[in-house]
């Protein structure tokens, strides 16, 4: 540690000699100034840690010197000990009033001088330590503030503006647009436009390639999108795979459409990341500010809502927000809540539609169909709630409930003597993708004690084609347990002919749309005929649904279809009504 520097200010050199002698063994570095003006001029050079200042000096006395030094910010913390022969309280008070830290009476006592110098230097050292600590603290605060600002206003991965920054800029643009509209100026500011982007099936990409690759993919996406940013516009990242354009430069519908197409074109070519080519698409929601004093968050919510609607239309779609979407989203959310509550309150009921042998018209079994008895009163058809359950995943627990109820009911009918009856239950695409499906089915079979060979599980053609390999493995395992597999809605929208020879399938179920064409589009007969012919060649049974007229029934009998169901035979009925009509005990 360097020596402490002490500046002695006194017009009498002899007094300096005395102080020097008294402090000779203390390892201090002493400096001398013969006047106050000389002392102040030498401050920068000497950098004193302590000043010993004589009060009685010509021209500029110690009181004035002390006052001047303490008035300078860079020296106000340097302690000053006044050395004076004046002993009155008034004189001492004057010294303290101008900023002196201590005083020593003349003649100077050596022990007192040493003690007071040590005390002041200790205070000086503490002050310096505190100043250094404050400086470090200030630097830390500034660094943390900068980091916090970056966290709040900048996305760490892509370096794009964050959600907060985008909303803040949107608020400014809204204000400018309102002021411009109020002033009706020639250089009107167009109301801002938000374009909310969300990558399609990003979680699948994340699962396939891992976080390190998808982080690089997001950076690459940001780089491509930034090519489209015009002066005055902003591109921000809102979430994991969500980006948002804040546009001020677009003023016409044609410009907007061109910009939307330009965004979609950025995703036509694959992204090359970690030596992998990754194809990805986006859906876009568009919200136009109507200058109705709505907060920025509301406009962003509109864009998000529109984006969600775009996703329902398919990959690479966009949708412009309109007010009706709020009501649609509200109704959707209400339906989701009601369905969740319905599951908890056991409001779902099973109805059974008879399936008959087409040639003999004898009862073969039933298809279990779910109905929603809301509040135990109104009966809601499945087409009104099944799509919502599919989208939310609620179809998985509801589907298991349907399967267990149907198996339990079938077991009861078998116990009543109708051992040849079968029951058909639908499996949704969501259920097929469930990792616990097989274990759940095994648990239900064990709990209900039914004969597995009397259970038919119907899988839609679309669910099969969504993941053919998984569906093949699943159906093989189920058939090994004796469970029959039916392909439902065969021939609608997909072509699984190439997979049929690989699937361990028992039945093809012809969709009702082909049957209704019998009356109005006779040229479509060949479609059903082809399916029946194909089924016989593959050794599969044909089940026809939607039979409503005797004419349809006669036509299908002629084609030699094995099974049929429809309103010609019966509409779906509650279990008790099924028993009353079809399952009376034999006498």
Could you describe the 3D structure shown?
It is a single chain. The radius of gyration is 44 Å and the shape is elongated. It is built from 23 helices and 22 strands. The chain folds into three domains: 126 residues, Rossmann fold; 160 residues, 2-Layer Sandwich (Alpha-Beta Plaits); 238 residues, TIM Barrel (Alpha-Beta Barrel). The model has no long low-confidence stretch (mean pLDDT 88). Strands 13-14-16-17-18-19-20-21 form an eight-stranded mixed barrel, surrounded by five helices. A five-stranded parallel β-sheet has the order 2-1-3-4-5, sandwiched between helices. α14 packs parallel to α16. The protein is 49% helix and 19% strand. The longest helix is centred in the N-terminal third of the chain and has 44 residues. With 587 residues, the protein is an alpha/beta fold.
* Strand residue content: 15-25%
CATH fold assignment of the largest domain: TIM Barrel
Going by CATH, the architecture of the largest domain would be Alpha-Beta Barrel
Total number of domains: 3
- Euclidean distance between termini CA atoms: 115 Å
Tell me roughly what share of residues is in helical segments: 40-55%
Give the C-level CATH assignment of the largest domain: Alpha Beta
Protein structure class: alpha/beta
- Tally of extended strands? 22
Q: Which term fits the overall shape? A: elongated
**Using only CA atoms, what is the Rg?**
44 Å
InterPro entries: CheY-like_superfamily, Cyclic-di-GMP_PDE-like, EAL_dom, EAL_sf, GGDEF_dom, Nucleotide_cyclase, Rev_trsase/Diguanyl_cyclase, Sig_transdc_resp-reg_receiver
Domain Response regulatory: 5-121
Keywords: Phosphoprotein
Pfam families: EAL, GGDEF, Response_reg
